[in-house]
Each structure stands twice: as structure tokens, then as C-alpha cells.
Amino acid sequence: MTLGFYYHIPVNVASGGINVPSYIGFFIDGLATRVKTLVLIAHKTSIRGDYILQAKNIVLVDLGVKSNSLHRSLCYRKILAPVDRYISQIDVLLVRAPSPLAPTFSSYKIPVVYYLVGDYAESAALLKGYSMKIVLQKIYLRWCHHQLLHAVRQKKVIVNSYALMKKFESRASSVKFIPSTTLRAADFCSHIGKSKMDEVKILYTGRLDLNKGLLELIDATYVLLKRHDIQLHLVGWEEDSNKPVEVILKKHIARLKLDGYVYFHGKKSLGDELNSMYRMADIYCIPSYHEGFPRTIWEAMANGLPVVASRVGGIPYILENDKDSILIEPKNSNAVVLAIEKLLTDNDLRNRIRVNGWRKAKTNTVDKRSVELIEYLNETI
User: Is the pLDDT of residue 246 over 80?
Assistant: First the structure.
């Protein structure tokens, strides 16, 4: 099979090869190892990713420097002109979405499959305020969502959450649930957790966003410190170089006099660097207000951490409370406190959650999901 693949994450081409962010790089390499040729349709950037694609059967179709979203939506014919020279060679085209260009691929006269990993309609709903800028952003995102709904009609669709499955199953010809993952064999910890819980390190990894429940996590740390030797470690990043969320969090930490108990580690690369953070920690906590199903939960479980997560989005469809995780209600710092206390005081529960989570993560590796995805794509040819 010659597989085409598009997503809006840009690539960097240097003498060492094609550089991409590792989370998408693992996915691309996983697909490439299972096809004759992978035609990678991508924008270029001068910024290097933290991963060099390993597969030697990847052909890059250069779409040029990525422009803003509105330009891509309106000028798609000019942007996609380089694809026209390759399209007859492609057996099936996989388009990861949402993305402004995603709907336009539906016009190609080859099988097109959409892999949905998010929802522009939900993004629009989460925008707060009534300024002209916010109103226009909402209108644009809802228009993009409408365009995608139209594009997937009579198409096969892959989704990475049950919430997306419910939204698109009445629109597409078929919908297949395949969770996203970055896990490889090397990412699994050989021993599952620590036997003692003396100095307790709570870990969060992911984007620094108040909707991830980070203020509640800090409030919970303040309460837990009265009874336990606790540290909170935050590994993550912001798109805004001014780091407005980190500023808010640090002000809250100062008000609670938690300096010396909460640590910011910045962004860590997937693989050894990020795994070292998981293996340093004792408990993983992600008290989000809303989610699909974050890949960080899979990473934490693969490294033997008991997981505390909000009962939102696709999380309760995959995780089971008191079996492979502790599920809590969002926007509730007391729920975070009670969940962590439960893990600290019940050794049997903590170990059961570690082992069951580790076993569940074993079912969701890049290797296994690539096989499943390619099998589904073969059905379209």
C-alpha cells in the first residue's frame, strides 16, 4: 500500500532527516513500517522537532510554510497544488483532523479516511467572553466544524474517543474507535511502582492550562501538606511565550506559601526524558474540566503510576474507578485530596491500580494500534 498522510503539524527538513514533534513522529513511523510507501503531506518550519523520522520509505510533499488558519481555509487550492502531482500514486489518504485544510481533501478521487482527534465545535464552546475577536473566533471554528461534518459524509472515520464516536457515527459511513498512543516497548517500566510512600511526589504532565484543574491540584497540595510530606511536580508547556498560566499558578502558590513544594519542569521530550519524570513520581493526577482521553494517562500507567483523573470526556469509557484508576468529579479540590489520601492509606488499592493500569497500557502501544489502523485502511482499497 502507498499511504498518504496529512496533519497540520509542520516538519523541519535538515541534513539529519525529517524533524517532527515526537508525539506525531512515533505515529508516522508506526504507520510507515507497515506500508510500502508513506507520502507525508506537510508544511515546513525552521523550528526543529525533538524527533527524527526513522522510516526510510517516507516521501515528503512540501506544502510550504504553514500560514494562518483562515488563509488555509480560503486558499486551499493553491496550498494543495503540490499534492496533485502525487495523488494518483496514493492508494488511500489518511487525514488527521480537525485542521483547516482537512475538509478539502474529501474532493480527491481516491479513498480518504479521517482520523479525528479533536472537535472544533467544542473548542468554540470553550471560548469565553464577548469581544469582537472572541465572537469571530467562535464563528470561524463553528464554520470549520460544519465543513468537516460535510466532508465526512459517506467516508470512513477513525476517532480516538467515544465522545467523538457519538458525534460522527450518524454522519460517516463507518466509525472506528482507535485510541491515540505514543507508547513503545521501551516506555514500559520494568517494576511497577514503589513499595513505600514516604516523601510523596505528585505529578502532572501536559499543556499548562487552567482547564486542566491545575489550581485545584495546587489547592489539594496545600491541604495534603498538613498531613503528609508532599511535593507537586508540573511538567508542561504553553503556546504563549509570556507563560500567562504559569504566572497565575505561581501567584496562587505564593498566596498559599507553597514555594519549595511545587516545581515547574517545563516541557520534556517523549521517551527517556519524559519517562524519567514519571519514574521519579508516586502518583499521577490530571483533574481536568474536560478531555478526550489524554495520552499522558497511558504514559503514566506504562510507568507504573497510580492515576487520579476526572470523570469527563472519554476517560470513564476506558478507565474503571478503584480498578485501574481513581475517578473524581472535576472542579473539586476536595475530591483530589480524598483520592490521593485513598491511595496513600490503602496499599492494596494502590498496588492493584498500578498493576491493572500497567496491563491496560500494554494493550495500547504504537505497534498494536498501527496494525489495527492499517487493517482498517486496507478495507477501503
Answer: yes
